[in-house]
Amino acid sequence: MNARTDALHPPAGLLEQLQPYRHLWPPAPLGSDSAWRIDTAGEYYHRELPERKEDIALDSRWPAFFPAPICIVTTTDGKRSAMEREVGASIVNRFPYVVALSICRQSLSSRHHPRATFMDILEQGGVASLQFLAPGKDLDDALGAIASSPDSLTSQRIEACGLRARSGVTNNAPILAPAYLVYEAKLVRPQKDFEGRRIYDSPWVDVGSHRIYFLEINAIQLQHDIATGRGQIRWRALPAWSALNNTAPVDRPVRGEADARYQKGYNPEYSFPAADTIAFEFDELADGMAVKHLPPLPEDQIEVDNDRARWPCFFPSSCGLITTWAEDGTPNLMPCGSTTVVSRQPFTIAPCVSYASINERYAARKSLELIRKSGRFGCSVPYISSSVVDGIKYAGNNSLANDQHKVNNSGFTIGPSDYGPVIREAPIHFDCEVTGEILLGTHVMFLGEAKRIRVRADVSPDNPLEWCPWAGVTANPLV
Question: Which residue has the higher pLDDT, 308 or 169?
Answer without folding.
Answer: 169
